Amino acid sequence: MRGSDRGDGPDARLVLAGAALAGLGVALGAFGAHGLESRIGAQQLGWWRTAVEYQMWHAIGVLALGLAGLRWARLPAWMLAGGAVVFSATLYAMALGAPRWLGAVTPLGGLAMIAGWALLAWRALRR
Q1: pTM of the full predicted structure?
Q2: Residue 4, domain member (yes or no)
């Protein structure tokens, strides 16, 4: 690995973002399992669970990239974080009764996550 690939150590902002996403994911997962299970329908609970799952997986990715401190991985990490927020937030909102048209926004978050992973892979291959 080239010396210029490394930052000055872990990226504190990415570590904070990843940790916040993960902590919130645990809280929202518990809320869904214990507070919503008897209050919303099966489809809405499925949306909730999908949101938690994607949020947690991407939180771990953001946290790992932040801890790695690789400058070239910062943009992909922020794309993962932003995508997870948009994707999951729209699903949480719809599960709680927000208009179904938000489902048209959800794929934009998914696209940001896919693009973040693709950019990370591309940048890693270029190293």
Answers
A1: 0.92
A2: no
